[in-house]
Write a structure and sequence with these properties.
With 513 residues, this protein is α+β, with helices and mostly antiparallel strands. The protein contains 20 helices and 17 strands. 39% of the residues lie in helices and 19% in strands. The radius of gyration is 23 Å and the shape is globular. Its cofactor is FAD.
């Protein structure tokens, strides 16, 4: 009885403290209390439920049988919307707080919500090397299933909760992108429901215009109902090399060298200043040196980055493949330190590390308007894609405009293909993703003006801004950055003007305020 009484007393004291200080005060100034006591347990319950559900559905093979029926239901909803006079735009009925994007989807309150309950893996075909999935399948589901049968995706982005549809209609990148490109480049087919309720399948050779228009479109001329993605044989471990590099020129040179080194399956870097970085590469393998097998990304070890950057000498470790894929997941890259300040403390890691991270969707749901505005004005979460040849200039611009460190660096190859995003010329070009996540340290930071300066630079070098984050461009600037020729052609051809808003109207703050 004594432990129960103690817990009851602690709970009572906590509730009294919240009553005296006010819930908003606690959520803003002592957010870690709310996260540790409520969001971490809730996140764990969510994970258990979805893991068990995915396992049962796949074992019973019920997803393929129910898929066609669910697609017909989506078509029925769209046709009913047309019959009722197409009075408002359509959008998916998924609540805005469930999305990983930091934006608040206010448009869902005024648009016609089409319910899309598609969250299963439909088929794994190892002969064709294809996995067929529904749009709300998460990266956690994909890695758990594929690695258990010896396969993997060529490009498998971080964070378990990110969904397949996020990467198809926005984009996705990973440290293997220098070999395979962005997530869209490993997709071989899309299955869509269009604005008139019709179903269409598109591939590079069948309905090719539609196939190339899907990525980066935010889904604003179709509803994605399934997709086929390439898979490749997986190995059990990754030989993980890390090398501290000093000096900006040396950092850029090292990146270029590692990109062209064909044996590297993975290449990325963490930049801690303009003069200090750690370049990390990886090679998949089944053979290990037992003394070098690492548990460096298990819950009880320091977060990746702090551990690897502890010294000035290069190092090598063997990491289990699935743990490598989710090396930044538990710490949400390094954002966890702003949510739970002691999250990297050894005691916390050993006792509660297995429960992190809290789900981003739950963090969004509970942040409140005051915290959201504070976060928007004093925090940056952005990924800018720029040509590798402009890396030095870009890093100087990032320092001058926002001064956020660490910075994640991930090189990728950008093929010359139709669509919203492609190189300036007719040949594939090497690009790099510069990811800035944290509190700006530039003096007198003002979100709108500073981000507009950064966006202007990215446009000037024919770069691109990932569309999950807030954009501050006006409509003319947005279409200067992205090639809208195919997008606008298809919106007119498919009769989408009255069915879906333009992508700019969803993405850019200038259109939403």
């Amino acid at each position: 009885m004594e432990p129960a009484v103690s817990l009851a007393v602690c709970a009572l004291l906590f509730l009294l403290w919240v009553r005296v200080k006010g819930l908003e005060f606690v959520l803003i100034h002592q957010r870690w209390v709310f996260v540790c006591l409520f969001l971490l347990p809730l996140s764990l319950i969510f994970d258990i439920y979805y893991y068990v559900r995915a396992w049962v559905v796949f074992k019973l093979s019920s997803a393929p049988r129910l898929h066609e029926q669910r697609v017909r239901d989506i078509q029925k909803q769209v046709r009913e919307w047309k019959e009722q006079g197409s009075k408002t735009f359509m959008c998916t009925g998924r609540p805005g707080w469930l999305t990983v994007s930091l934006r608040v989807g206010k448009y869902k309150k005024t648009h016609k919500n089409i319910m899309i309950n598609l969250m299963d893996i439909l088929e794994v075909d190892t002969k064709k090397q294809i996995v067929r999935v529904e749009p709300l399948v998460t990266m956690g589901q994909v890695t758990a299933l594929l690695t258990s049968i010896g396969w993997t995706l060529p490009v498998l982005p971080e964070l378990d909760d990110l969904t397949v549809v996020f990467f198809f209609i926005l984009t996705g990148i990973e440290s293997s992108s220098h070999k395979y490109g962005l997530f869209q480049h490993i997709c071989t087919a899309y299955e869509l429901v269009l604005a008139d309720g019709s179903f269409v399948r598109c591939t590079p050779s069948e309905n090719s215009d539609l196939f190339y228009a899907v990525p980066w479109s935010c889904g604003f001329f179709f509803f994605l109902v399934a997709a086929e993605i390439r898979i490749i044989p997986a190995k059990k471990y990754v030989i993980f090399f890390f090398e501290p590099v000093q000096g900006l020129e040396a950092i850029c040179a090292k990146f270029t060298h590692d990109f062209f080194f064909q044996e590297n399956h993975f290449v990325e870097g963490l930049l801690y200043s303009l003069d200090e970085a750690v370049i990390m590469t990886g090679v998949m393998t089944d053979e290990v040196e037992p003394s070098k097998v690492s548990q460096g990304v298990f819950f009880f070890r320091p977060r990746l980055g702090r551990h690897e950057c502890g010294g000035t000498e290069p190092g090598l470790e063997y990491i289990p493949l699935r743990h490598y894929y989710h090396r930044h997941t538990r710490s949400i890259f390094w954002e966890l330190q702003d949510i739970i300040p002691f999250g990297n403390n050894p005691i916390f890691r050993y006792l509660f590390g297995w429960m992190v991270p809290p789900k981003i969707s739950l963090l969004k749901l509970t942040q409140g308007e005051t915290l959201r505005k504070l976060y928007e004005q004093h925090h940056v979460v952005q990924d800018m894609l720029v040509p590798m040849k402009c890396l030095q200039q870009a890093l100087h611009t990032f320092q001058n405009d926002i001064h956020v460190y660490p910075i994640w660096l991930c090189p990728f190859i950008l093929p010359s293909q139709p669509g919203l995003v492609h190189p300036k010329g007719n040949e594939a070009e090497l690009y790099i993703d510069i990811g800035a996540y944290g509190e700006p340290r530039v003096k007198h930071f003002e979100a709108r003006s500073c981000m507009r300066q950064l966006e202007k630079f990215v446009r000037s070098v024919h770069g691109f801004q990932m569309l999950y984050a807030d954009c501050y461009m006006n409509r003319e600037e947005f279409w200067e950055m992205f090639d809208g020729s195919l997008y606008h052609k298809l919106r007119e051809k498919l009769g989408c003007q009255d069915a879906f808003p333009e992508v700019y109207d969803k993405i850019c703050k200038a259109a939403r305020h």
